[in-house]
């Protein structure tokens, strides 16, 4: 089974309960190491074929985690992600969409 659970699902923003199909088994996607999504090592583990993922990802957007964020109220940097700079981060929704695409289960809102 592939889909989302709960009222928020992907469209509501929480993305909890996102299921993906891998090797014939449905399971919940793990949490990202970064608050913004998945690190490169996590994506490599989840998708396997990084060349194919890279070709698909050319039309997507990634984030850059520096382990800090700028607070416009104080005009200073504050720690984010526990102060760990994760580098390039792939958004959870994009990784979930790719995994659904790979299994041939793409929904109309993708």
Report on the structure:
It is elongated and about 45 Å long. Strands 3-7-4 form a three-stranded antiparallel β-sheet. A two-stranded antiparallel ribbon has the order 1-2. Strand 1 and strand 2 form a beta hairpin. The chain has a domain of about 70 residues. The N terminus is likely disordered. It is α+β, with helices and mostly antiparallel strands and about 110 residues long.
Radius of gyration: 15 Å
What composes the largest sheet? 3 strands, antiparallel
Portion of residues within helices:
10-25%
In percent terms, what proportion of residues is strand? 15-25%
> Would you count the extended β strands for me?
7
| Low-pLDDT stretches | 1-26
Q: Sketch the topology as an H/E string, one letter per element.
A: EEEHHEEEEH
Instruction: State the helix count.
Output: 3
Average pLDDT metric: 75
Report how far the terminal alpha carbons are from each other.
Answer: 18 Å
Class inferred from helices and paired strands: alpha+beta
Described by the principal axes of the CA atoms, the overall outline is elongated
Strand numbers in spatial order across the main sheet? 3-7-4
Summary keywords:
110 residues, single chain, alpha+beta
